[in-house]
Amino acid sequence: MSLITAKKMTLSHGTKTVLRDVDFNIETGEIVTIVGPNGSGKSTFLRAMIGAITPSSGTVTRSADLRIGYVPQKLHIDAALPLTVRRFLNIPKRVKARVASQALEAAGVSEQADAQMAHLSGGQFQRVLLARALLNRPNLLILDEATQGLDQPGSAAFYRQIEDVRRDLGCAVVMVSHDLHVVMSASDRVLCLNGHVCCEGTPDVVAIAPEYRALFGSGTQGTLALYRHQHTHDHHHDHDHSH
Amino acid sequence: MLDDFMVRAALAGVGVAAAAAPLGCFVVWRRMAYFGDATAHAALLGVALALAFDGPIMLGVLAISLLVAIMVSTLSGRGLAEDTLLGVLAHTMLALGLLAVSLMSGVRMDLMAYLIGDILAVSKSDAALIWAGAAGVINLLIWRWQALLSVTLSPDLATASGINARREQLILTLALAVVVAVTIKVVGALLISALLIIPAAAARPLARTPETMALLAACIGVFSALGGLNAAFRWDTQTGPTIVSIAAAVFVLTTLVGIVRNRA
């Protein structure tokens, strides 16, 4: 049973088309990673998934029991807004004190329960965002470069927690990631965007595609290629698709 | 008791301050200070229109503030920067309002009363309308509190949780228009946004959660209204500016407390 299905979805900012003709669906328990160069429409894609953007054409269908946990790329909390970590967890739905404490403990930030959100370190802040996203027991977790600004151990710990969460809650995960290692080891499916769906498939299928090798190379070069590869848009779609 | 103009003035001041201050917290959190200012300035055109058509002042102000607020929220993000848009719109409305008043030679209107307010001229029906409006806004804020806070924090996070972000933003706009309409008689078009922003800003250094900030702001607003009324009566000064000055004094005080506390 699909949680979200997009058909021929085109997304625009004003008159500018950011993504066109995207067919996408996500099933219960699946982990899908979105890759693509800067400005390729990854964040726009996620915002359409949560319903913050209405497609200019095409359709997005959500299952009736869809519960989204969303961790944004960045959350700016205005200095004028006083907000403790505990209070933050109670937005928008109030949760029992015990539930909030458990969530903070699981995220490893129980000491910071009464701290102001603005005073958290980058890693603590991201873990609190994740803890809050998990409070309503989502069946779909959406992460937008959630490890941005974290060091390597921090980001590794973050992804371990995501895997625990999927095991415990059985939720699907859609995430944008620049971390090639994570993409290849943890994803069921990879979706490469660059204004449209460039290529899509399981990591091993994508990995043996000649085009993928041209884009991502091997070893550490691959990570760089992931950031830098430029699509000319005239390539033939001769690799394995799972549209 | 209501026959005493001081009692009516005190009631009006308390009602307005109690509604404006918590709403003002959202204005501060969302960085809408200039938005509040623009809406308030435009309200003068509402006064002129109400006088021209011989209708109730508050209704005219409410209509024009709503119009401006909705115009700004729909026009923003389409080319012009929001502050430019607000500047153009607000001052055009203010100028048009002043122009309309000067053209109405038959109507004897005390312009100053609407620019800086005349709380001592509040009638029984004015006081009732102010309280109805204030109670409406306070109830709206309490009812929608969690959703409004969520949208203020991040429209995307709110949307992901199933909140209609646009609707909540519209609710804030509506509340702002109502507050402008009931406040114009008390402190005037020029100082309305002071009652929104200064108590909220004064409450910030003492608050650790949004709720305490809103409550503190309401207390500071009510204190300023009563203190200002008292001081204006004693020293024979304009009430609107006196109320705002007291709020500003509280702001200086709490800011100093905040600084001292952070050093300690």
Tell me what you see in this structure.
The complex is a heterodimer of chains A (243) and B (264). Chain A has 2 domains: 1-67 and 139-233, 3-Layer(aba) Sandwich (Rossmann fold); 75-136, Helicase, Ruva Protein, domain 3 (Orthogonal Bundle). By secondary structure, chain A is an alpha/beta fold. In chain A, the strands form 2 sheets. Chain A has a 6-stranded mixed beta sheet with strand order 5-6-7-3-8-9, with helices on both faces. In chain A, strands 2-1-4 form a 3-stranded antiparallel beta sheet, covered by helices on one side. Chain A starts with a strand and ends in a 15-residue tail after the last helix. Chain A is 35% helix and 24% strand. By secondary structure, chain B is an all-alpha fold. Chain B has one domain (5-194): ABC transporter involved in vitamin B12 uptake, BtuC. In chain B, 81% of the residues lie in helices and 0% in strands. Chain B has 11 helices and no strands. Chain B has helices spanning 5-29, 33-52, 57-75, 82-103, 111-116, 124-153, 155-160, 165-187, 192-203, 210-235, 239-263. The N and C termini of chain B lie far apart (49 Å). Chains A and B meet through strand 5 of A and helix 6, helix 7 and helix 10 of B.
